[in-house]
């Protein structure tokens, strides 16, 4: 990842050991970090600090993470918010998305997973930080809305482009159909989840992925891109 010195991340959690753990790890990755332990201080700090990414705990005393998320999305021009939730329930995911959250991570989580999701949000929402981004045999150029695979430009529809970009950026992470629908089609999409299967099938054909070695199906869990 490039230009990390230009990337500001704010951590908001009322558990000191989580803040210390994440702050140390992310500073070692080169990010500029600020921290807050409650919602009110988080909002005031964010207005001054202007972070690109906020890692935000849901359950906090006083102002909870949902309200902080709503206020940050209202008052900051462009910010990616990753919610930390203690439970993986559909209601929490929907509530987070409707208040403006961009992604969520369920506790307990690995630092590597959070780092991958931060990188994914930066590439999605701040493409100016990256000209062309390469992942194994893929090269993504978001300004041209173009994806090359093994030096071959893929002929993709706008939705196929967004889906493949999301899968590749999140390579190594299992993505459920509902998560893919939320991130690619939008949380207010009223269609069936099977639309994901249709588009995955089309991408596999264009990638010549007959054996499903590139885009893997994990039965009952979702899809995962495995890069060579």
Characterization of this structure:
One of its GO terms (molecular function) is phosphorelay response regulator activity. This is Two-component system OmpR family response regulator. The structure is a single chain. The chain is an alpha/beta fold and 228 residues long. The chain has 2 domains: 124 residues, 3-Layer(aba) Sandwich (Rossmann fold); 94 residues, Orthogonal Bundle (Arc Repressor Mutant, subunit A), CATH 1.10.10.10. It is built from 8 helices and 11 strands. Strands 2-1-3-4-5 form a 5-stranded parallel sheet, sandwiched between helices. Strands 6-7-8-9 form a 4-stranded antiparallel sheet, covered by helices on one side. Strand 8 and strand 9 form a beta hairpin. Helix 2 runs parallel beside helix 3, helix 6 crosses helix 7 and helix 6 packs across helix 8. The model has no long low-confidence stretch (mean pLDDT 88).
């Amino acid at each position: 990842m490039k230009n990390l010195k230009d990337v500001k991340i704010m951590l908001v959690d009322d558990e000191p050991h989580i803040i210390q753990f994440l702050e140390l790890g992310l500073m070692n990755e080169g990010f500029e970090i600020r921290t807050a332990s409650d919602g009110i201080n988080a909002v005031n700090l964010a207005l001054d600090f202007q972070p690109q990414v906020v890692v935000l705990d849901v359950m906090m005393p006083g102002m909870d993470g949902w309200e902080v998320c709503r206020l940050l999305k209202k008052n900051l021009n462009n910010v990616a918010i990753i919610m930390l939730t203690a439970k993986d329930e559909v209601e929490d995911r929907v509530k987070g998305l409707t208040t403006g959250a961009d992604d969520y991570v369920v506790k307990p989580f690995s630092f590597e997973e959070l780092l991958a999701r931060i990188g994914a949000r930066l590439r999605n929402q701040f493409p100016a930080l990256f000209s062309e981004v390469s992942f194994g045999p893929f090269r993504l150029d978001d300004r041209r809305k173009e994806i090359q695979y093994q030096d071959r430009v893929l002929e993709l529809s706008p939705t196929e482009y967004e889906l493949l970009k999301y899968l590749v950026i999140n390579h190594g992470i299992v993505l459920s159909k509902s998560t893919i629908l939320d991130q690619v089609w939008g949380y207010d999409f009223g269609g069936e989840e099977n639309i994901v299967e249709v588009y995955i099938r089309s991408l596999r054909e264009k990638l010549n992925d007959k054996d499903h070695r590139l885009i893997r199906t994990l039965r009952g869990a979702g899809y995962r891109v495995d890069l060579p």
